Amino acid sequence: MNQPIIKVGILQNQDSITFKIYGGYILNNKIKLSDRKLKVLPNGKNLILQEKNEIIYSGESLSFEPLKVNKSIEDARYKFEVENVTIGIDFHWEQKEKESFEGSFKIINKQGKLILINEIEVERYLQSVISSEMNSESPFEYLKAHSIVSRSWLLAQLENRKNAVSMEKSQVNENQKIVWYDKSEHTDFDVCADDHCQRYQGLTRLSNNLALEAVKDTSGIVLMYNDRICDARYSKSCGGITEEFQNVWQSVYYPYLKSIRDFDDKDEHLPKTEEEFEKFIKSSPEAYCNTKDESLLKKVLNEFDLITKDFYRWKIEIKQLALKTLLEMKLGIDFGEIKELIPLERGKSGRIIKLKIVGTKKEYIIGKELEIRRALSEKHLYSSAFIVEPIFKDNSEIPCKFIFYGAGWGHGVGFCQIGGAVMASKGKSFEEILKHYFPGAELRKIY
What we know:
The chain is an alpha+beta fold. Helix content is 21%, strand content 34%. It has a domain at 5-210.
């Protein structure tokens, strides 16, 4: 097969979009434009393209194609720069950036809201992903491993879309809300540019040749299992034990995403009881992702990720009023005073799949892991692998506050980014790293 061209959603749900083009572009195969700062606004079902408040085009869609003679040759003169691109949407470090991209792009009007879509070859897209997801100064074997993981995930999603794979994503009634948020739910493009899919920042972070070399060295190589491309998931830190797919998303078991200890002795006993999970989460067991190597972390994490220091083990406190207010805001339910937060079901990493909220007015069950993280924080908790300790005052039966002891950063399924970087720093090859996190999977070059 040839490498695909993919559609990446850069901006969504916008009232207007401002961008600048560098080099020559042709609009809708009609109008040549170069080195212009432009603004797009919706007008009913149509779009208006403006320059300095002067309308230069109006139509149902806007499609921009670079005028390069040889489109296979990278040329920095042909790019477009987009203002106010949000990265880390809904996460604790969310921020806006001005970002530059290459390739073709189009802007569409969807019910009065604008979407900007970048069309680009898979391998060039991946060079940006590897530089955007992690610092391109990371160990080279780690960057190669991540290239293969990201490529596998992307191509697996394209296969699912082509085969119209669709699964139920919620179980909601008056007593519970069990929902999960998969990465394949976009309808207007293949993947978005943020952490919901893979962090893609175009040309913005392509400052180090290592990321480019890692993608080129592994070009076309994917993880396979039973002749199918692996749905290779990843997160920042598993917290010492990786999680299984079905405990985060659909009820499908993938053998190559089974739960493992993030250490050499992968078959060491995994916690099973609530007491064992409490002991595991409140301790700091040895693991690849249990690192405080500042020099390595600075090479691996981008500056906004470096804000998070306590990714392996963390602790937060939430006062009673703050918690009840937060839950009412997030879930739309008046629980009264919060009495208990009870884990009903955990995955093998300790991540809570179902959590029972017990209030003086209402009891309710929520899940899966991301819904729990969103409900208990203004943005996201680092993970749903936590123990809750209620604190009482003056013999009251109602806790005055709750202390959360947590483990890991993200859903924990598949590839542990920080763990993989530590493995590479210890001399492990990309093949060894991938074998560790995706047991039973094999590497295959498909184009």
